[in-house]
Amino acid sequence: MDTLSKILDFNLISIGDYKIKVYSLVIILLILLITKVIVQLIKKALFRRYKGVHFDTGNTYALYQIIKYVIWVIAIGLILESIGIQLTLFLAGSAALLVGVGLGLQQTFNDIVSGIILLSEKSIKINDILEIDGDIVEIQEIGLRTSRGLNRNDISIIIPNSLITTNKVINWSHQKKKTRFKIGVGVAYGSDVDLVVRILEESVLEHPDFVDGKTIEGRFVNFGNSSLDFEVLFFSENVFRIEKVKSDIRKIINRKFSENKIVIPFPQMDLHFKSGHTEIIPKTD
What we know:
The protein is of the alpha+beta class and 285 residues long. Strand 4 and strand 5 form a beta hairpin. This is Mechanosensitive ion channel.
């Protein structure tokens, strides 16, 4: 016992009156271990699947993140206290330093505050599909400073949280389960308008990723400069991969146009040349 006491009382670091002993290191390790165990238990409890009970994954994840951050802040405070650093004195003594750091890390703090807003407000959740700066992203993780998403090219994108909270963001997941999309196409003047509309609607019907065939609608939109302009509107639940769906439908439209001798014209431009005359000015000395 005496040997153990001597080991625990052994000074690892000694700077003037400030000393860190072995038992302080043991306490720090215990705090870290207990904190990690508590966080893991809370995570298992929150994400456990109960029979007959449905939990929203996004809400549960947001609650877990908030609880995790609070627990770790408390743990860090206990660690500082265990090594003899008074938090009140530490904060008061480092006030000027914190102001300087705060100015330098203003954007970082902005992202952190935005992360807290996202996690608490729950306007954005895991698996939500967002349109940010013209890019479609499926949110996979919401962190305290940044969020991580996957775009339609399967590229992982790190998004500062302030970009989500301060910019205009379209959340496709807030809409109904199905969303309306359209495909535009132009055909040559003189084409059978009714036939074109019927082909557009039949082309969508051939693809599996549409919802409710009664809502498919072909429209004659406009008389273009080089073509008669049409569009076909349809509903789909495959929001994230809709560009692939549109590409497949365009292939079907192109095939059916070829089968029915309907031409998609090239852009045309008429050039008018105006004849003129050249005036010869004699050279003077």
